[in-house]
């Protein structure tokens, strides 16, 4: 159905008509500085099309709420939660009610979030409710800014995404965007570019005049005409308006905005008690708190004396909330648990992760106080425990040097290194390949020999074979060596020998 609405006069005696059905398919962009008649144009469009199509007005200043008295629009106060606004928008599309979303009283970021939630609810309505809706957004540069401003990035992305959906993807859902802005340069280009109809009003900045001329297909030299447009006069172009740029004078409206342009009125006579009227608060005005008088400045000598005084003695610490942990008791409990783990013959062939889980369980069973050591600290303790140094030897300088030297060895090799280092410190025979393999968690004597070769390549020890075929391990950095030992001797802790790899 073709419906033409009269927007005003295009020439003397010739009306300016707008094809409403074409507008629903091609969208509209209105541009004009403050005072150019932009809101008047939107009001004319809304009043003329109210009987023919459902309308939704996003009103940041509350100027369009007067449509409710004359045309039955429902005013939706935006001071609600975003989820509630989304649900309301869905019901609006379902019941086909014309509304005005009143954003008055909210700051800019709250307005952006509320508009995004409301437009998102209309956009996400079920397919059965995709009826035609004229969605008018006044001051669109607030909701689709071209650059980041003082609002948060999240609010800007939500609002810009909702406006982009309205202008780019709204047509298939029956949403026809009509956006109005004071400045084209402040409006996101991907939002403005989706409009096919334009009504350009008065503007003064060169960048805005140039963009308006480009959108209307006019020469840059003709852009100066936008400075001379009177209030309520626009240049129209688009399939719903005119195929060529057409000057239009917007017609009268039936309703008016709550906020009108200020008019000059004579000043009243100055009353004789004007001074009392200004400086005496009224009975209902809140009383301002009394201004505190700043203290007098402190003399320099007194200030230096205060700075020279000794600091007060620290207060005694308060009684701790938790019981103080006896570190000696804690270490003794951990050592006991480590010995229990190592006494298990199968422990040598379990991974550190498995042993650590067993360690944590045993610590809880024995009520070891405090936090258990982390996995890296547990590996270090396990390597030292496997070496088997006890008593006074564990505090000797040579053994401490061996512990320091082992820190440069990989975690999985520290146990084997400390085992042979302990034998050297104590002057005991060199451990056999089977013993070294078990310390490494393997059944392969050949792997044990490769470990000794690796230590020798790193310069940690020197392997020497005596005249009887026994092996001696010398540690140059420790100044000690093991006694000769048979490398092929069986492991007493593991009688059953497996075949080497």
UniProtKB/TrEMBL annotation:
Disordered: annotated span: 255-296
Keyword terms of this UniProt record: ATP-binding, Nucleotide-binding
Key word Glycosyltransferase present: no
Gene3D superfamilies given in the database record: P-loop containing nucleotide triphosphate hydrolases
Any coiled-coil regions, as ranges: none
UniProt key word ATP-binding: yes
Pfam families: DUF87
All copies of domain Helicase HerA central, residue ranges: 13-109
Molecular function as annotated in GO: ATP binding
UniProt-recorded name of the protein: ATP-binding protein
């Amino acid at each position: 159905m073709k419906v033409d609405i009269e927007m005003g006069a295009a020439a003397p005696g010739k009306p300016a008509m707008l094809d409403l059905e074409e507008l629903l398919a091609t969208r509209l962009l209105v541009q004009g500085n403050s005072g150019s008649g932009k809101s008047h144009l939107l009001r004319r469009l809304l009043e003329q099309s109210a009987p023919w199509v459902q309308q939704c007005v996003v009103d940041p200043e509350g100027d369009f709420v007067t449509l409710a008295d004359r045309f039955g629009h429902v005013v939706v106060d935006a001071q609600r939660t975003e989820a509630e606004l989304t649900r309301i928008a869905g019901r609006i599309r379902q019941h086909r009610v014309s509304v005005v979303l009143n954003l008055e009283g909210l700051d800019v970021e709250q307005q952006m979030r509320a508009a995004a939630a409301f437009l998102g609810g209309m956009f996400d309505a079920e397919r059965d409710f995709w009826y035609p809706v004229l969605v008018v957004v006044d001051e669109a540069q607030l909701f689709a800014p071209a650059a980041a401003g003082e609002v948060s990035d999240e609010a800007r992305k939500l609002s810009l995404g909702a406006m982009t959906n309205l202008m780019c993807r709204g047509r298939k859902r029956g949403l026809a965007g009509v956006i109005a802005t004071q400045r084209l340069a402040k409006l996101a280009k991907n939002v403005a570019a989706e409009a096919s109809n334009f009504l350009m009003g008065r503007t003064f900045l060169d960048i805005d005049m140039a963009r308006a001329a480009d959108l209307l297909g006019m020469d840059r030299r003709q852009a100066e005409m936008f400075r001379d447009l009177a209030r309520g006069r626009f240049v129209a172009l688009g399939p719903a308006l005119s195929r060529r740029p057409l000057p239009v004078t917007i017609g009268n409206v039936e309703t008016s905005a709550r906020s009108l342009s200020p008019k000059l009125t004579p000043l009243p006579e100055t009353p004789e008690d004007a001074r009392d009227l200004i400086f005496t608060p009224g009975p209902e005005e809140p009383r301002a708190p009394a201004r505190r008088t700043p203290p007098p400045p402190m003399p320099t000598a007194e200030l230096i004396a205060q700075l020279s005084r000794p600091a007060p003695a620290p207060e005694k610490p308060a009684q701790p909330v938790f019981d103080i942990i006896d570190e000696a008791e804690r270490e003794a409990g951990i050592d006991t648990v480590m010995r229990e783990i190592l006494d298990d013959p199968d422990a040598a062939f379990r991974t550190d992760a498995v042993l650590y889980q067993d360690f944590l369980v045993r610590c809880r069973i024995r009520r070891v106080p405090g936090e258990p050591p982390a996995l890296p600290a547990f590996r270090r303790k396990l390597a030292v425990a496997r070496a088997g140094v006890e008593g006074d030897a564990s505090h000797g300088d040579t053994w401490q040097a061996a512990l320091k030297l082992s820190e440069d060895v990989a975690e999985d090799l520290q146990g084997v290194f400390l085992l042979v280092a302990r034998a050297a410190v104590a002057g005991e025979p060199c451990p056999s390949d089977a013993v070294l393999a078990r310390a490494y968690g393997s059944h392969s004597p050949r792997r044990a020999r490769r470990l000794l070769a690796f230590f020798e390549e790193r310069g940690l020890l020197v392997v020497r074979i005596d005249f009887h075929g026994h092996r001696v391990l010398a540690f140059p950095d420790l100044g000690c060596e093991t006694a000769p030992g048979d490398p092929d001797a069986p492991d007493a802790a593991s009688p059953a020998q497996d075949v080497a790899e």
